[in-house]
């Protein structure tokens, strides 16, 4: 239509303007916007149209073009103003730190993560475990994995030797992968529900003169089980957090149907950071996020945040929510109970993993634990890797 | 064709003429849609009027509105096309009786006559560009989203039995999402984006005035203010624009001209705005009074 008449290549726009626009696109990319070449070209053509306009009239157009998510939408104004009106790229960068999702500050740490300081998986560890055929459910232990098995049953608190810590991390990762494979295989076996596919049946019947001799069947598509982890990263859990982070990385990475959140006094969505292929970098990021915690754990409030802002998006009809926490809550138990009740109505199962159950005479005395107990489907120990492995059969049945 | 395309200046008036009160941002987005030929992705809470945007757009262009409601398990067949099996079976039987050979029968039953258009195919086969509303795209599966992305970039569909169908006119595409699932970056990048928020008080009052005939300006303003403050309360489901309109119609029907007139009736009718038991217990008559004190 009218568009074609205008030069869409942006020839009419001066070189300085074009450079400035490119710089703006660059700034947006730096702030986590997904801006491609096509968008920049389109922006240029908007400039051609409204070359005489003031920035104020340009802004809504560029916003509609460059934004892709709600958080983009909310941050755009400030970045736009900082860039076009105050000429402050630096200001805009600072804004990235104030992003509501908490993802941006993590990204900012990317370069800080001491790649050399905390080395990734040594190759030999992985290989040995592959050969050993470590079995998740504790049965069928084969030779060659004895050390791994040993590690699996030690309470994570008592693993102090750096080498053992490294091995245990690798094991946690491997365990998560085995568990994932198991859950997915289970999926395939279950797809037995069948119904007639009329479209293909007719197609086939044509060669028999319209008599449907060969029936075509359609397989029912089942949703894979989705796991949502809520990991308590408070001080009282600090001895366990690193292992769970590693475990979560194994579960979330490459497994589409998994989401992870970390909480202490606030809740942070960490799936994106966990999807980083580089294990040690992902773990470092999370370790940094989990640091600097004080003022106790507010499980109830964090759950409320989850229920209100995230639940609708991450929970579907086949979701198991796994809360990893010792249940020491500094908030109101009634608040926790209320939010647990809400969560209970949203998801298929709530599994509470409590590392303290490992100790011999544990009973759920913590106030938070007491409040949450009525809404939990399974309260399971999580003090060593074996106990985590034992979860797989339970999840497969859901 | 010239008058069909929206210019940036007149778009707000033309939307208003069909009963849609637009803010500056959405007007710009709708103009850009035409200018850049990109689909528009609308996100926002339920009830903020996302679907209305598509309806208004269709009305402005006096174009047909074709709606595809997405749901879990929606597949290409249901969205694109289907063969009319019953008729096909009948045709096979009758033609068989006439002694035709299988190839000829196949040729016949996979022809245009037996094709059932579903929304997506319908949208690209119209002579005059329709408005295609893909509602709640987040409810469909990832696979469907990928397919949609392909359709939205090429505007052509291949039907194995018939061949490739190319768009005769490129439809204006509006997608809405409630955020029950994260949409792919590819789809987001393909689209223009607009986050639809609840309308500000002035705009909501205008909406009430246009949609509820015969209501006082003062009352409309009071209603809009009241609803805005109800939305600020910590409710599970914030009332949408449709609820506001229901409430306004109720009040107008009861002959109330001022919210302070009958506090009792006010509290009772406010249940038009509340949709869950939990919220109902939270919005006690004391709360209503407090809110009323603030706005009226």
Write a brief structural summary.
The complex is a heterodimer of chains A (398) and B (296). Chain A is 53% helix and 10% strand.
- Highest-level CATH class of the largest domain in chain B: Alpha Beta
Question: What gross morphology of chain A would you assign?
Answer: globular
Q: How are helices and strands ordered from N to C of chain B?
A: HHEHEHEHHEHEHEEEHEHHHHHH
First-residue to last-residue Cα separation of chain B: 49 Å
Poorly predicted segments of chain B: none
CATH topology of the largest domain in chain B: Rossmann fold
CATH superfamily of the largest domain in chain A: von Willebrand factor, type A domain
Give the helix proportion of chain A (percent range): 40-55%
List its salient traits.
A: alpha/beta, Rossmann fold, 19 helices, 8 strands, globular, disordered N terminus, B: alpha/beta, five-stranded parallel beta sheet, two-stranded antiparallel ribbon, elongated
């Amino acid at each position: 239509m009218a568009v074609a008449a205008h030069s869409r290549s942006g020839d009419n726009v001066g070189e300085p303007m074009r450079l400035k626009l490119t710089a703006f696109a660059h700034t947006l990319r730096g702030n986590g916007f997904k801006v491609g070449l096509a968008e920049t070209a389109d922006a240029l053509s908007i400039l051609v149209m409204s070359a005489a306009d003031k920035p104020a009239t340009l802004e809504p157009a560029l916003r509609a073009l460059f934004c892709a998510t709600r958080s983009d939408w909310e941050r755009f104004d400030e970045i736009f103003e900082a860039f076009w009106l105050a000429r402050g790229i630096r200001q805009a960068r600072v804004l990235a730190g104030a992003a509501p999702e908490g993802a941006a500050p993590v990204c900012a740490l990317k370069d800080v993560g001491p790649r050399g300081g905390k080395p990734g998986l040594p190759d030999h560890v992985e290989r040995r475990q592959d050969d050993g055929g470590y079995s998740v459910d504790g049965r069928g232990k084969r030779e060659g994995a004895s050390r791994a098995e040993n590690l699996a049953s030690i309470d994570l608190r008592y693993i102090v030797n750096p080498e053992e810590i490294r091995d245990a991390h690798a094991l946690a990762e491997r365990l998560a992968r085995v568990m994932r494979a198991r859950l997915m295989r289970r999926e395939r076996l279950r797809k037995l529900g069948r119904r007639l596919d009329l479209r293909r049946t007719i197609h086939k019947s044509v060669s028999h003169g319209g008599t449907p001799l060969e029936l075509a069947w359609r397989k029912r598509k089942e949703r894979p089980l989705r796991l949502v982890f809520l990991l308590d990263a408070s001080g009282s859990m600090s001895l366990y957090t690193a292992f769970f982070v590693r475990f979560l990385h194994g579960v979330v990475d490459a497994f589409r149907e998994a989401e992870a959140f970390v909480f202490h006094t606030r809740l942070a969505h960490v799936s994106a950071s966990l999807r980083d292929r580089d294990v040690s970098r992902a773990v470092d990021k999370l370790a940094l996020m989990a640091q600097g915690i004080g003022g106790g754990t507010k499980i109830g409030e964090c759950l409320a945040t989850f229920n209100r802002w995230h639940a609708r998006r991450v929970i579907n009809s086949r979701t198991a929510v796994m809360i990893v926490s010792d249940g020491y809550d500094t908030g109101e138990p009634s608040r926790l109970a209320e939010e647990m009740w809400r969560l209970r109505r949203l998801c298929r199962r709530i599994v509470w993993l409590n590392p303290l159950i490992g100790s011999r005479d544990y009973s759920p005395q913590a106030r938070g634990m007491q409040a949450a107990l009525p809404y939990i489907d399974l309260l399971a120990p999580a003090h060593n890797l074996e106990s985590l492995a034992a979860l797989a059969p339970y999840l497969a049945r859901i | 064709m010239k008058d069909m395309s929206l210019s940036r200046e007149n778009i707000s008036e033309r939307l208003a003429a069909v009963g849609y009160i637009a803010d500056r941002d959405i007007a710009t987005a709708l103009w850009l849609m035409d200018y850049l030929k990109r689909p528009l992705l609308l996100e926002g809470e339920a009830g903020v009027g996302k679907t209305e945007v598509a309806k208004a757009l269709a009305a402005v262009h006096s174009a047909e509105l074709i709606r595809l409601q997405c749901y879990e398990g929606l597949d290409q067949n249901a969205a694109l096309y289907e063969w009319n099996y019953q008729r096909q079976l009948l045709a096979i039987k009758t033609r068989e009786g006439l002694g035709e050979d299988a190839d000829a029968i196949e040729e016949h039953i996979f022809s245009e006559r037996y094709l059932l258009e579903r929304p997506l195919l319908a949208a690209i086969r119209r002579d005059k560009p329709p408005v295609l509303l893909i509602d709640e795209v987040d409810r469909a599966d990832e696979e469907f989203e990928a397919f949609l992305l392909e359709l939205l970039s090429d505007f052509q569909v291949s039907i194995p039995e018939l061949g490739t169908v190319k768009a005769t006119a490129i439809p204006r595409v509006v997608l809405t999402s409630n955020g029950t699932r994260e949409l792919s970056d590819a789809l987001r990048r393909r689209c223009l984006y607009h986050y639809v928020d609840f309308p500000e008080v002035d705009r909501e009052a205008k909406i009430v005035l246009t949609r509820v005939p015969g209501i006082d300006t003062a009352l409309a303003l009071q209603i809009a203010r009241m609803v805005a403050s109800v939305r600020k309360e910590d409710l599970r489901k914030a009332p949408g624009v449709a609820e506001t309109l229901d409430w306004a119609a109720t009040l107008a029907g009861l002959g109330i001209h001022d919210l302070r007139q009958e506090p009792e009736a006010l509290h009772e009718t406010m249940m038009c705005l509340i949709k869950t038991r939990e919220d109902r217990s939270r919005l006690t008559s004391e709360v209503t009074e407090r809110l009323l004190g603030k706005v009226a």
